[in-house]
Amino acid sequence: MTDLNSLKYTAEHEWIAFDGDVATVGITDYAADKLGDVVYVDLPSGDTGVTAGQVCGEIESTKSVGELYAPLTGEVVEVNDAVVDDPSLVNSDPFGDGWLVKLRVDASAAADLLDREAYLALTGGEE
């Protein structure tokens, strides 16, 4: 189980786990629950640049289509092909096998992200 307090979050309901200069990005359980059953995930290609706050992918569910925003500026170093093949991983394991992309970033950019407490305050305390 991922330690949710060790992650950073965005107001767009993404989580970020840092390992040196590589940031693993996914959507939170709150976002996955609000989306409903995820049926399609479109992720950026590997070795492409993304810009913080810009759309870099799409997540479709039985309820709606949501845009995936890059939480940080960086280069895509890996995409989770398993989630493209089986989008339900976003619902069943959002903080584990349902991760979306890994970005090479400047780790100092994490200062602008939310901690778990601030994210829970944003979502009304819902886990």
TrEMBL record:
Cofactor(s) the record lists: (R)-lipoate
Alphabetized Gene3D superfamilies for the sequence: 2.40.50.100
Cofactor annotation remark: Binds 1 lipoyl cofactor covalently.
PROSITE patterns named among the record's database cross-references: BIOTINYL_LIPOYL, LIPOYL
Keywords noted in UniProt: Lipoyl
Modified residues (N6-lipoyllysine): 63
Residue stretches making up the Lipoyl-binding domain: 22-104
Family of the protein in this entry: Belongs to the GcvH family.
Subunit-level organization: The glycine cleavage system is composed of four proteins: P, T, L and H.
Function: The glycine cleavage system catalyzes the degradation of glycine. The H protein shuttles the methylamine group of glycine from the P protein to the T protein.
Official protein name in the record: Glycine cleavage system H protein
Primary gene name: gcvH
